[in-house]
Write a structure and sequence with these properties.
With 645 residues, the chain is α/β, with parallel strands linked by helices. The protein has 24 helices and twelve strands. The protein has three domains: 350 residues, no CATH class; 209 residues, Glycoside hydrolase/deacetylase (TIM Barrel); 70 residues.
Amino acid sequence: MMRRRAVLLPALLTLIGFAAAVPVLSGRHAVESRYRTVEMVLDFDEIAQLAASEGIDVPPMLDKLKGTGVTGIAISEDTIPKMIESGRAGVLDGTGNLIVEIYGSKEWSQRVQRNLEVKWRAEEIGPHTFAFGESNFPVTLESLKEVGVGWQPTQIGAVRAAGFTPICRPTDSPRVSEKALRFTFQQVEEAGVRRVLFAGKFVLGNSELLPITAEELGRRNIAFYAVELDVQDGTAALTSLLDGHVIRTHSIGDREMLRQTPEMARERFVRAVRERNIRACVIHLFLDRAMTSPVGYNLDYIRALANDLRENGYTLGDADPFPSYSPARPLHLALMVGVVGAAVLLLSLLVPMRASTGVCLCVAGGVVVLGAGTVCPLPARLMSALLATLTFPSIAILSLWRDPDATRPAGGFATRLLTSYGLFIRASAIAVAGGLIAASLLSDHLFMTRAQQFRGTKLSQMGPVLIVAIVLALDFTAGGETWRDVVARAKARFVALWNHPFTLGYALLAAACLGAAAFWIIRTGNDVPAAASSGERHMRSFLESILVYRPRTKEFMLGHPAAVLAVFLALSGRRRMIVPCLIVGAVGQASMVNTFCHIHTPIQATLLRTLYGVVLGLVAAGAVCAGAEAYSRLAGRAEARDGSA
C-alpha cells in the first residue's frame, strides 16, 4: 500500500506528459501530411552529355524529358575552363602568364569581366581578352576551375522554354570573398531564379561567410536545397541559420552510381522521400555503362521513379521549403514534467520509497524542469528527451522483473505463452509512451529538417541496457525491504560477482558480448551504418515490399523475442536464463523509444514501424518459446530415462 501511494503522483505526472504528447504529435502529423510535393531534378550538363551520346541537341533532349516527371534542371555556374572546353573561349600564347580570349557574343565577355572584377585579379588587355597572373606568379587553368563567372542566359532560357524550373548551382571556391559571394547571389536574382543547389563539397561561404550566405538567401527569397547526411560541408550550419526553412534533398553520388541499378536507385529515392521528409530528388543519369539506347534507358528510369513516387501518394512539382511547426511552450513544459514523473517511477522500482519521498522528488524535479524550460528551453527539451529514452525502456523491462504474475508458474504452454504476450505488450506500451513523449519534445521544424539534432542516439540505445544489466546483476530492486536491506543485498551480490572465478569460458563470453555491443553501436544511426550482409539486404527489401515501413531487425528478431522468452521461462519455473533474456530484451525496448527520436521520419511511419516490430516480434517469440518448451520436455524425458536406469 505504501508503495502504491508513493507512485501515485509520479504516475499522474507521467500521464500528464503523455496527454501533452497527443496534440503535439497530432499537429506534427497534420504538417507532414500536407507537405507532399516532391521535385525531380536533373543536371543540365548530364542532359547535354546524354543528348550528345545520340547526336541530338539539348533543346530536343529537354523536349523528350517533358511528361517524364522531371520538374527542375540544375545549371552549374560557368567557368573559364568550361568555356574553353566547349569552344566558347581559347588560350593565347603569353609571356609567362595565362591569356584567354572569349569568343562569341559581347554579352558573354561582359559577364566574364563583371565576375572577374570581384572574384579574381585579371587584366583586360584587349577586346574580349584577359590576362591572368604575371611572369613571377603564373596562373593555371586548373586553378580557375573554382572561379565561377556566372550563368549562361541561353541555358536558363532553354530550361524555361521547355517548361522546367531552373535551379542555379553556384561554384564553391575557397577564395570567395564577401563581395564575390553577394555578387553571385545578385546574378542568381538577376537571372530570375529563386532556387540554389550548391556545387562541390562545401556550401558557398563555408564556413566564416555562412551568415552572409544565409542573409542573401533570406533577403532575396531564394530557396536552399539542403543535401542530407552532410554530403556538403556546412549544410547543417546553414540550415540552422535559415531556421530550418530549407528543401531537404537526396542525391546519389558519382561513385555510388557505379554500383547502382535503376531499381536500386528508385528504391533508395522513394525510401528517402517516404521516411526522411526528402522533397527534392537530385537524379544523376546512367552515363557510365554501355547500352543500346542511353536516352531510352534513362527516360525509362526517370518515368519509373516518377510512378513510384505517385503510387506512394506524392505530387510531383516545385517543392516549398519545410513549413514552420513549433508547439506552444506550455506543452513542452508538461512533457518535461511527465519525464520527471517517469524518472521517479523508475527510482521507485529500485529503492524503497515512502509517499512523502515520492511527492518531494516530484516537486523538486518539477521545479527544476519548469525553471530550465523557461530560462533555456532548447537544452532543457534535449535533456528531458534523453532522460525519457533512458527511463521508459528501463521501466518496461524492470516491470517484467517485478511483476508478480511473471514469478509464479501457471498453466499449460498456451496459457503461459498468452500470459507472456500480455505482459510483454504492457511493457512495450510503457516504452512506446516514452517514445511518444521524447518525440513530442523534439517535434518542431528545426529538428524535422536537422537544423537541430538529437545527439543522444547511441546513449539512448546503450543506456537502458546498462541500467537493466546493473540492476538485475546486483538484484537492486525494491521489494518492500528497507533501503539498508537493498543496499546490503546489492553489495553482497557485487562482492560475489567480483570474487567469482574468471574462467576461459567467461573470457570468451565477455569478448563475444563486447564485440556484439560494439557492432550494435556502430550500426546505430543513419550517418555511419555498418554494411549489411547480402542476406539482410534481401530481407529488408522483402519486408519493405510487404509492409512499406520495415521494422528494426534488432527489435523483432532479437529484443522482443528475448523479453517474451524471459517471462515464459519465469512462468515455467525455469529462472536460470531470465536475467540474460531481460538484458537482451532491453535492446528491443530501447530501440523502440530511440526510433521515435528520428524526428526527420514522419510520425506515422514511426508508429507503423513500431507496430510491425511488435507483431513480428511476437511471432518470432512464439517460435522461440515453442523451441524452449520442446527442449525442456526432451531434457525431462532424458533425465527420467537416466533415473530409471
